[in-house]
Amino acid sequence: MKKIYTLIIGLLLFPIFSCAQQLDYSKPIPFDSTVKTGKLENGLTYYIKKNAKPQNKVDLRLVVNAGSILEGEDQQGLAHFIEHMCFNGTKRFPKNELVDYLQSIGVKFGQHLNAYTSFDETVYFLPLPSDDPEKLEKGFQIIEDWAFNTVLTSEEIDKERGVVLEEYRLGLGAQKRMEARYLSKMMYGSHYAERLPIGKKEILENFKYQSLVNFYKDWYRPNLMSVIVVGDIDIAEMEKKITSHFSGYKNPINEKPRKIYEVPNHKETFVAVENDKEAPASQVLLLYKDYGAPKPVVNIGDYKHTIVEGLFASLLNKRLEELTNSATPPFTYGYSFYGGTFARNKKGYQSMAMTQEDKQLSALKVLVTESERVKKFGFTQGELDRSKAQFLASVEKAYKDKNKINSVSYVGVYQSNFLENEPAPGIEWTYQTMKKLIPLIELKDVNSLITDYLKEDNRVVILTGPEKEGLKKVTEHQVRDVLKMDTNAISPYKEEDAAVSLIRNDVKAGTIVKHETNSKIGTKTLILSNGVKVTYKNTDFKNDEILFEAISFGGSNMYSDADMKKVQFANGALTEAGFSGLQLNSINKFMTGKIARVKPYIGITAEGLKGNATPKDLESLFQMTYAYFTNLNFDQSAFEGYKQKQEAFFSNMLSQPNFYFQQEFYTYLNTNNPRFNGLIPTAKTWQETDYSLAYKKYKERFANAADFEFYFVGNIDDNTIESYATKYLASLPASENREKALDLGYRMLAGDLKKVVNKGIDPKSNVLIMYYGDAQYSDKDALTMQALGEIVTIKLTEQLREIESGVYAVSAKGALNKVPNSSYSFTIGFPCGPDNAEKLTASALEELQKIIDNGPDEKDLAKFKEGELSDFKNSIKENSYWLSNFTRSYINGSSPEDVLDYETFVNAIAAKDIQNIAKKYLTKDKAIGILMPEKK
Hints:
Largest sheet: 7 strands, mixed
Shape: globular
Number of domains: 4
Distance between the termini: 47 Å
CATH topology of the largest domain: Cytochrome Bc1 Complex, Chain A, domain 1
Radius of gyration: 29 Å
């Protein structure tokens, strides 16, 4: 699937005629002519593309074709360790100057600046401003230093050991324990089973410095590297910079061969049944591995085959989705696809499901049955036609926005081309080829795939789940019995009728009684005859996107305490029943080939609907909105099916130490809140849940459309939205009643509080430091509190990670809220080792006290401003940002025009403002929660 969506970036939807005689399947797939690509004499490959979204930005990426699979026995975990060292000091940017400099130009560590290490590659991301020659030059200096000039002194290596070990600690838990037991079967006989990127603890603690240096020298070399540059740039200038910065480096004289490791085939079917006391859920994986390496996608025939594979997956997954939407779902979710495994050169057919803890065998049987059903009877022509239509609708949307694609999407395509030779033909070629290929794909093409997929050798079945009293463990013999299926008992798939309309009642259109315009922010507002208010903003950010939200004050705070507990966990089930007398599966079939969705919600202080559509499918969005207001179905069996899926998802969640910690901590803080009913549903809360009452309350919440504000942002035609608004919104039931956000007066415990929760067998801790309470809201204070959170994050990263080497990541977040009551919150959180929890908590509070006493460093305030304004300049050209601006303004009772002064607001924040807000709110009582392992 990944390959398909990488290749397919465009297609217009219009009548197509057969071109079988004109299509040469042996013709090679070309490389995108808009991309400048080449190879330096030393073997380094480069890709350069000019792309103006986002404006004045460039994405640089250093790709190293080397990962943990190449580590020696004494180097396990060192490919990833090198990644860490690249941020700790280079020739031009010693120690922490690199991160410090990038933050000063608006590049946020972890959010923008990042990297990853996998089995086969290590990749570094560096987004930069492209309109400043000095910053651009420094960016090339940085990726050059990462490639060849990282400082690997013994002092810096030892400092980073603690950080890497903390990242290793994060991965400990049930999943890692079970994986360690089943991986040898999943990747039988393969080097991949012995080279997980995180490495081994004993090696990370004790490796010799030279082992790290050797890995860097052996594998960070030009002929294993690619530099990718995509953004608002001059191509010729970028090519000169690549040549200048990288052509002077040479490969080792006696270079090690870049070996491709195989995944051996096996005649047996391997079965692994692994259980753990801390496993949060039960899962099933059925894997049929290919015999050989993946066939490269070189010509048009290969390209067509990838599309057929995608259609196959979508067809089968539609059937699995229908089962999950049934009254007796066999699993919470299930899906099948053909794709990659851990290894780059091994693919396979894979089926997965999350199940109820005692239903793993029945879920496995469903996965096997559905694959065998396809093998025996194939898919139907109707299914294929619908899948083709959906496929075309998706690529049509992408093609219409071909000039609005973000640079980061292109970077990923060129990375795959470098590492795995995946095609990068460009949008125009893809469009021209796809409109010829899709009509040529026949039912036999899709049906024939399953014969190659299913086999009795090279097969692996993995079941993972909780271990607890009263739950009988599945045996390997039982799994093998399921695999021995009697296909004679399988019957053909039965097509259900699709809906003929989303609306079943007559719609009596209203009128527009008033037009309003706001030229400052480019909005138009329609006042409808029933009192409904519709505000919309026409943008050119995307050609084929319209976003929507309707919002009204009210929410579950309008319910009594007793009613709230009865409906809290039933609200999510309401849409499972469908609308207009139609079941979900029937609605989904009707929507084939259309891109529109709407989802109602009931929050604590507001209710509403969110959705999106393409311009041509906007009427469907309006129809769904009308149906959710007027004709939501009541279906007890749909609720029971929803409950089964939720129970499978949540029943063992509290076995996870971190989740258990949050449940206990927040239960403690909400001691005086009679509405608090836990973070997740339990057997007791399900017993108390009343679906009928939830449905009744929903109808009450959506009884008055005039109490909602309707917002639309995107490529909107005036005449079209007026037509749909008068028909589908002006006809909604409405009254003159208006509700306000209700403050029930419940608060979390006040005081200087501390709670230690013991859970888990691994040496893992988590710390939460929370300040909260009532406040006097102002927009300035809200922005200042946000700035304080980001500045504290910078300081704690420096202290707890870089200086004390005690955490992998730490974050702080501050906020002021106006609804339902004016309040403040400030949270610091980090995972760490149990032995360091108290010490690091004290260090965090000490750093916070420094800001309270002295204010922030001016350079840290400048970092916040640079990063915030950089994000703002990108965000303000996104439809989602404008939609959230409208809803945020509604909630706060402020003007959406304030966004026009946002840069002024940010620049006006002074260090003294930060200090004052810290003094005002962070010198009061606090609550500290600490997760510690269970006492032995």
